[in-house]
Amino acid sequence: SLKMASDSPESLMTLCTDYCLRNLEGTLCYLLDNETLRLHPDIFLPSEICDKLVNEYVELVKTDSIFEPHESFFTLFSDPRSTRLARIHLREHIVQDQDLEAIRKQDLIELYLTNCEKLTAKSLQTLVSFSHTLISLSLFGCCNIFYEEENPGGCEDDCLVNPTRQVLVKDFTFEGFSRLRILNLGRLIEGVNVETLLRPLASLAALDLSGIQLNDVGFLTQWKDSLVSLVLYNMDLSEEHIQVIAQLRKLRHLDISRDHLSSYYKFKLTRRVLNLFVENLVNLTSLDISGHTMLENCTIPSMEEKMGQTSIEPAKSSIAPFRGLKRPLQFLGLFETSLCRLTHIPAYKVSGDKNEEQVLNAIEAYTEHRPEITSRAINLLFDIARIERCSQLLRALQLVITALKCHKDDKNIQVTGSAALFYLTNSEYRMEQSVKLRRQVIQVVLNGMESYQEVTVQRNCCLTLCNFSIPEELEFQYRRVNELLLNILNQSRQDESIQRIAVHLCNALVCQVDNDHKEAVGKMGFVMTMLKLIQKKLADKTCDQVMEFSWSALWNITDETPDNCEMFLNYSGMKLFLECLKEFPEKQELHRNMLGLLGNVAEVKELRPQLMTSQFISVFSNLLESKADGIEVSYNACGVLSHIMFDGPEAWGICEPHREEVVKRMWAAIQSWDINSRRNINYRSFEPILRLLPQGISPVSQHWATWALYNLVSVYPDKYCPLLIKEGGIPLLKNMIKMASARQETKEMAR
Asked: Which of the four, 103, 252, 428, 458, has the lowest number of CB atoms within 10 Å?
């Protein structure tokens, strides 16, 4: 019962919609002349399905970078006989004039156009075709919809000098929109006469005039018998405005809130104004006065205010004018006002900055249309998550995800939202989160990384990814995560901290994953990127975490992946290996990582001849005596040489050092290791070791392989005994015991 609805699996409807949109050609459509999408002639879909297809399409284009928009998508809904639309929500640059034009024959009931900046006055004409059915319309933030292009003069050359001018359309009104009840004109462009525009509407129920400056709102009284909701966010108010509002007695929702940072604002709220609202607007259930300064004290004396348990009963209200309310309000907006910190507030839901509940209410109420307020509310949530503990974690996560999706291009929201996500996904909250929710977090984090090259956002996103189990939880976006991280690491100017986190993530992503994943990442330029980082660090003569992680990542990505091993050699990896060895003779961690990687290269028969030089063989032989990192460096050096020896004396194409001399040093090294050493290495497969058992050409390689198996199965029996049996190691060991060429001590160990 505690689980949120968002936690349950997606409905079959949602899954099918998503699948069809991602595979339009394979499902509902075919391609005409290889470019235009056409609906199959036998398809008839009701509005329940079509609405969802359109609304989900807009959502996908907006939030999923892999999803390709289709030029001709909206034409699929041009004929109401096969596809019916009723309620659609379109946003931003996704929709253009020709898209609305394509669906003009539909009987739309609800049309929300939010921040559709590409729409021009052509779309106003298209709206007229919906006038007989439209009940609800939003043109919020469609800043060009009242502009048309005026073409000066007929002359071609003249047009180049003097491009099309935009002219404000003055003659459009809502004449004929007989059923329109709900209208949002938020952020309407200056110069449009709102009164003339709205006069033909007979009975408006809800009107939003956010961000519009009107000195005279007397015309609103023509709907005093029908208007139940009025939003005047950021409108400069005066005494005249207040008198008009007080006459709209049917109002249930009134929002006169403002962004207190936006501009100088003469109007101050007084006790008298609030009293006027309470006395006249008797049906009021929701009031928003966020951002207002109170001119005088509306609160009751503080002694009385602090008394008793917090109550939402109007009679006990700490805000004096609200004692006249008949019942508590459903919602009261007090964000960025001093009133939200009072004890007794007569409302079920309050937006404010006093505590987590109020802050979450604010994010919920303002996300859609007021990103400037939302980013400040998320900032408060960030502090709560960082300093205290979030008590409504799932709700908080859900709200931040929604805000990040909704405002993908808003820098403030991306910065504060990505920072809040880091604290909301850390380990102490882990238990409460479902797979679905954690995947949603990963999606918005990757969106942020994609849209913003900005350092703070990149760092926050990378840090948030560190809160997940890698690679398991990122597997479903494997390619994309790697591409984004490599992108960060390939930038010429780099922030040290981001570089460190990104290399750490890259390393974790290629650890313990399937070979096809490693090959794919190799093809993306992973090997090259790591070698470039190593080269830079070498030039600065620094051996830090970035240097060590880069070698470790190369060790992981070359594991049983010959293509990546070859890339390492082709991009002068061996040269860097020798230079690092020379520059940092004391760095044990580094030596271990480098030799682990060379062990992987040496397992590839075709590449071994490239290791067969006097210089390399001498280096490997000298490292046999290394005591770095316990036995690890010596062990890996011996492993490299074991594979080289396995090719036989005829492959030994160098005079110095002699093969026998190296063999002697290998025996000495193996005999010096403690058989019970705890290990700093992780085998996914024994195959490369097992292939050294059934051969007589190099007894020392056989011995190294047997020692390796013996050590691993005796120190970590639970992990490695099953692996040895599964990969057929037992018969190989039994046969080896019978071999004449095998050394006695090797046989003992095998037994």
From this structure: 428
Question: Distance between CA atoms of 517 and 98, rounded to whole angstroms?
Answer: 42
Given a contact cutoff of 8 angstroms between Cβ atoms, the answer to whether 733 and 750 are in contact is yes
- Strands 286-288, 329-333: pairing is parallel
Statement to judge: residues 43 and 134 lie in one domain = yes
Task: Indicate whether 602 and 625 sit together in one domain.
Answer: no
Tell me which residue range forms the domain holding 546: 469-611
In 679-716, alpha helices (H) = 687-690, 699-715
Nearest-CA neighbor of 278 among 312, 319, 338, 334? 319
Which CATH number fits the domain that encloses residue 551? 1.25.10.10
Residue 88 belongs to a domain: yes
Q: Alpha-carbon torsion 591, 597, 599, 605, what sign? A: negative
pLDDT at res. 6: 54
Residue 216 domain-assigned? no
Identify which of 228, 276, 275 has the alpha carbon closest to the alpha carbon of residue 252.
228
Tokens of 423: 């604290």
3-state secondary structure of 262: coil
Please answer whether residues 690 and 727 qualify as being in contact, where contact means their C-beta atoms are separated by less than 8 angstroms.
Answer: yes
Strand partners, 167: 148
| Degrees, nearest 5: CA angle 312-315-319 | 70
Output phi, psi for 294, to 5 deg.
-90, 130
* Strands 136-138 and 206-208, sheet pairing: unpaired
What phi and psi, each to the nearest 5 degrees, are found at residue 298?
A: -100, 0
Contact at 8 Å (CB) between 88 and 51?
yes
**SS3 of 624-639:** CCCCCCCCHHHHHHHH
d(CA 343, CA 350): 12
pLDDT along the chain (751 residues), means of 10: 57 95 93 88 95 96 86 95 97 94 97 96 96 97 90 50 70 95 95 95 96 95 97 95 97 96 84 96 97 82 72 91 96 96 95 97 97 97 91 93 92 94 85 85 90 86 93 91 92 85 94 88 94 94 93 94 95 94 91 93 94 93 88 93 94 91 95 91 90 93 96 94 95 93 93 93
How far is CA 453 from each of CA 410, 446, 596, rounded to the nearest angstrom? 13, 12, 34
In this predicted model, what pLDDT tens digit does every residue of 587-645 receive, in sequence order? 988 999 999 999 999 999 999 999 999 999 999 999 999 887 789 899 999 999 999 99
What whole-number distance in Å separates Cα of residue 527 and Cα of residue 572? 11
Helix, strand, or coil (residue 601): helix
Whether residue 588 lies inside any domain: the answer is: yes
Number of domains, the chain: 3
The two three-digit tokens of residue 664, written as one number: 């002697």
E strand intervals along 69-138: 87-91, 110-114, 136-138
Judged on CB neighbours under 10 Å (0-12, 13-18, 19+), 718 is: exposed
Q: What is the mean pLDDT of the chain?
A: 91
CA distance 138 to 141: 9
Coil, strand, or helix at residue 694?
coil
Given the structure tokens 């709700």, which residue do they identify?
395
Entry pTM? 0.87
Question: Is the distance from CB of 641 to CB of 598 less than 8 angstroms?
Answer: no
Which residue's structure tokens are 């931040």? 400
- Other beta carbons within 10 angstroms of residue 557's beta carbon come to 28
Question: pLDDT per residue over 441-471, tens digit each?
Answer: 999 999 888 887 788 999 999 999 999 999 8
Cα 489 from Cα 499, distance rounded (Å): 6
- 529: nearest Cα among 509, 508, 502: 502
Cα(482)–Cα(508) distance, rounded to whole angstroms?
Answer: 11
CA 387 to chain centre: 24
Which amino acid does the sequence have at 83?
A: T
Q: How far apart are CA 472 and CA 46, in angstroms?
A: 40
DSSP class of 464: H
Identify whether the C-beta of residue 723 lies closer than 8 Å to the C-beta of residue 689: no
Q: Are the C-beta atoms of residues 306 and 343 closer than 8 Å to each other? A: yes
